[in-house]
Amino acid sequence: NAGVTQTPKFQVLKTGQSMTLQCAQDMNHEYMSWYRQDPGMGLRLIHYSVGAGITDQGEVPNGYNVSRSTTEDFPLRLLSAAPSQTSVYFCASSRTGQGEAFFGQGTRLTVV
Amino acid sequence: GQQVMQIPQYQHVQEGEDFTTYCNSSTTLSNIQWYKQRPGGHPVFLIQLVKSGEVKKQKRLTFQFGEAKKNSSLHITATQTTDVGTYFCAGSGGYQKVTFGTGTKLQVIP
Q1: Is B42 within 8 Å of A40 when comparing Cβ atoms?
Q2: Residue B91: closest CA among chain A residues belongs to which residue?
Q3: What is the predicted pLDDT for the residue at A2?
Q4: N or C: which end of chain A has fewer CB within 10 A?
Q5: Which of B24, B27, B95, B97 is the best mutation test for A, with the most CBs of A within 10 A?
Q6: What averages of pLDDT result for each successive group of 10 residues across chain B (110 residues)?
Q7: Is there a contact between B103 and A99 if contact means CB atoms under 8 Å apart?
Q8: A68 by DSSP, 3-state: which?
Q9: B13 vs A52, A73, B28, B60, B92, CA distance in Å?
Q10: Cα separation of B106 and B77, whole Å?
């Protein structure tokens, strides 16, 4: 049982480059979300989705896009990477938005 | 917007001492969850509290949800080196947005 799978695990980008962080879950969860984790700031919600075709902004959405074309996948796109986006990114899924969330292993992104 | 603060930010304890972290929300929560993140790892779910005044125990861990559903605490009795990590609370005022606390990083000195 894979749970939540994130790729890649590590990535280095140059300022201005774009990329997509992949997230897939095999638990048939409706709710998926993306967080970024920075030292001393906990986990901040970037975007979330309550089901296929439905997405909404979280606390820190600027510079990121998401889409949810299937229940399983919830990719996060960085449009034009900036050094301020250097962070660890976690994808999570849960059956509903209220219950236990399962996290992926994280993507450590460095923007130079 | 909803804000969830945790104190302390860091805590160093001698092995065998007790540890408590506190979580405070700016708004009333429908439920609160607690997660543990080991160094270099990802958050792992520990427990969820739903009812006002609820207390739950998991071995040496005791979780409490405040009467007003705006605060919560996690208490660890007789810490062990395996308790090292960062503990997060997470809450939502409704169905959709889950807000994580700032976390408490626990170091246990053998």
Answers
A1: no
A2: A98
A3: 76
A4: N
A5: B97
A6: 89 98 94 95 96 97 96 98 97 79 95
A7: no
A8: coil
A9: 45, 41, 31, 15, 30
A10: 13
